[in-house]
Amino acid sequence: MDNQKLDNGFHKESILVREFTADDRPDVLEIFSEGLMEMVADTAFRGLRHHPESVLLYTAATALCFVVTMCWWVIALLPATVMCLRYFYSRCVIGAYLREAMNSDMGDIEGYYMSTPGSCLWVAVLKDKVVGVVAAAGQSGGALELRRMCVDRGYRRCGVGIALGQTVLKFAAARGYSSVVLGTTAYAPAAHQLYHGLGFRRVRRTNGYATPGATQSLLERIFYRVHHHYYTIDLQSRKNISSGDC
Fold first, then answer.
1. Structurally, what CATH architecture does the domain formed by 23-243 represent?
2. Residue 5 and residue 24: Cα distance in Å, rounded?
3. Integer Cα distance of 168 and 187 in angstroms
4. Does residue 66 contact residue 75 with C-beta atoms inside 8 Å?
5. How far is CA 32 from the centre of its chain?
6. Cα 142 to the chain's mean position, in Å?
7. 96-145 per-position pLDDT tens digit
8. Which of 59, 190, 230, 240 is the most interior residue, by most CB within 10 Å?
9. What is the pLDDT of residues 41-84, one digit of tens each?
């Protein structure tokens, strides 16, 4: 596959996107692991604003505690306790998801992506350093799934995500896929802005998504809730629009 270069206005360097090699493994796993664990705080704290049903539940529990105990110090401690429990269960679920990923595709990148027709994993390189990763896997129905996109924290908002995403779209178009799809539980606006910037549109959102690795215990369901956003891009329509512009 041809290497792709993208002019980087921030670093005044070229981002090189190329296929994964065995020497990239330590960097790829580190970027993926750190990126995934960053979602713990995102889910526990930023995510709460997106779940009014959880806020209502916590508010009702606080009021009930006040009625039962009539102790102000209990009421004062309860919000901090709730946030600690949200962080704890977010870390448990996301940690379990990470272990599951490491025991499946991310533990056998060559087998899952590099030797499977219609699938691939790429790395973004800047100044001889691996700074990002993305994978693609063929799905039934003529769709290609964009997976595992992560960018090193020190190189975000520098065009790395765009370069990786464009690589997947070109790969899909070259191999005749009709669409590219992806799913995310991220609450950070930057992630959704990236997908929209690449041309994806959100087709639905699932509330109370069961993250792989979750135990679905009562306490986990109370303190860990996420939305799952489904995005797609129709490559055929995009091709027709591009042809019309010419």
1. 3-Layer(aba) Sandwich (3.40)
2. 18
3. 23
4. yes
5. 10
6. 22
7. 999 999 999 999 999 999 998 889 999 999 988 999 999 999 988 889 99
8. 230
9. 999 998 888 787 787 777 787 777 767 777 777 777 788 888 99
In degrees, rounded to 5, the angle at the alpha carbon of residue 113 between the alpha carbons of residues 112 and 118 is 115
Tell which residue, 123, 138, 179, has the closest CA to residue 1.
123
pTM for the whole thing?
Answer: 0.83
Q: Are the C-beta atoms of 14 and 6 separated by less than 8 Å?
A: yes
Distance CA 121, CA 135 (A): 4
Strand partners, 137: 145
d(CA 203, CA 196): 12
The answer to whether residues 75 and 65 touch, using CB atoms and an 8 Å cutoff, is yes
Q: What is the largest CA-CA distance in the chain?
A: 72
